[in-house]
């Protein structure tokens, strides 16, 4: 040990400083994490309403973590009757029909409205899916670089944005145990439920809320909030989830199209048995009140805003398609019974 200390002292004396390990580049992080990021849509029975957001595959057998407000109907306070999850294509092209071709049905397993967390289970998963490491957020501090992956409205699907942690807030919005990071990484509607990732590619937060307009109508920029992964991990333990991030699949068989083609919160959680969740009586979760406030329109340019996709139109179209598909299947089953 003495000679090791002398060696390092000699290096420092000659102007050589120890080199710290550098994190991954944004490109490397994206290539590592993005395959485990999904788009989540909740659909009403009528096909006229729904919600869209982002989620993260945290177990290879198809366990997905997202926001509760993505899968709970704000009007009824109950889970959407149908949930669709879309897996990332090999290349995102900007053609939503092609980019969202890999659809899998999902079941709501549990959710917490106060924490704005929900746990989904994908159906018919027969091969291991890519996962993102739900890491320990306690090591992340103000000033650390972070990245977000999601589907911001008016932007592209599986979009990467970057920034730093700008603040930490305990008991966010008065909810005990709801600890969040404030970040300047760009988030917009559609990013909800997606991962906040550190410079090593580990998930250290669940993107939850944004602030865009102050109480006096002045615009707010670069104020977004992500629930810390330590809170999510504790909640998962309370659900009794066997959180291992290891493949847990049925015996090997033919690969089906579902995958390859088109801390003290126990009193605040609602667990739902699979496969059909029991609706909770808890009120629908609300995002930070500033998220949906809009001040007077003050356009800064005469050019139309970019519009890669409109979240409401996309969800509405998919909801109608889901309702039509269910209706067709029911009709076919009725015909078979008549025979």
Automatic annotation (TrEMBL):
Q: Which Gene3D superfamilies match?
A: 2.40.10.120
Q: Which UniProt keywords apply?
A: Hydrolase, Protease
| GO molecular function annotations of the record | serine-type endopeptidase activity
Q: Which Gene Ontology terms describe the biological processes this protein takes part in? A: proteolysis
Provide an example Pfam family for this protein: Trypsin_2
Task: Report the source organism.
Answer: Nitrospira lenta
Return the annotated region ranges for Disordered: 242-314
- Classification via InterPro entries: Chloro_Bact_Ser_Proteases (IPR051201), Peptidase_S1_PA (IPR009003), Peptidase_S1C (IPR001940)
Bias (Polar residues):
290-301
Q: Which top-level group of life is the source organism from? A: Bacteria
Q: What is this protein called?
A: Putative Trypsin-like serine proteases, typically periplasmic, contain C-terminal pdz domain-protein
């Amino acid at each position: 040990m003495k000679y090791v200390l002398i060696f390092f002292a000699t290096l420092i004396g000659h102007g050589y400083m120890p080199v710290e390990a550098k994190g991954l580049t944004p490109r490397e992080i994206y290539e590592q994490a993005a395959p485990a990021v999904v788009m989540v849509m909740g659909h009403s029975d009528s096909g006229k309403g729904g919600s869209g957001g982002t989620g993260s595959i945290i177990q290879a057998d198809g366990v997905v973590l997202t926001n509760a407000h993505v899968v709970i109907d704000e009007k009824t306070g109950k889970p959407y009757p149908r949930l669709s999850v879309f897996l990332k294509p090999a290349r995102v092209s900007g053609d939503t029909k092609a980019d969202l071709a890999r659809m899998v049905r999902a079941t709501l397993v549990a959710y917490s409205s106060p924490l704005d967390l929900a746990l989904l289970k994908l159906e018919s998963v027969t091969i291991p899916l890519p996962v993102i490491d739900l890491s320990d957020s306690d090591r992340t501090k103000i000033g650390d670089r972070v990245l977000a992956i999601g589907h911001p409205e008016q932007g592209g699907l599986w979009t990467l944005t970057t920034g730093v942690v700008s603040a930490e807030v305990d008991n966010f919005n008065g909810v005990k145990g709801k600890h969040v990071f404030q970040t300047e990484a760009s988030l917009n509607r559609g990013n909800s439920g997606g991962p906040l990732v550190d410079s090593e590619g580990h998930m250290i937060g669940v993107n939850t809320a944004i602030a865009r307009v102050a109480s006096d109508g002045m615009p707010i920029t670069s104020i977004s909030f992500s629930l810390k992964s330590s809170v999510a991990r504790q909640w998962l333990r309370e659900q009794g989830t066997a959180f291992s991030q290891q493949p847990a699949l049925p015996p090997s068989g033919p690969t089906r199209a579902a995958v390859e083609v088109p801390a003290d919160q126990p009193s605040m959680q609602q667990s739902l048995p699979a496969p059909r969740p029991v609706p909770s009586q808890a009120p629908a979760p609300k995002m930070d009140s500033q998220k949906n406030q809009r001040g007077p329109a003050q356009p800064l340019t005469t050019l139309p805003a970019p519009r890669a996709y409109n979240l409401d139109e996309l969800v509405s179209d998919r909801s109608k398609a889901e309702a039509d598909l269910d209706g067709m299947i029911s009709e076919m089953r009725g015909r078979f019974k008549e025979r």
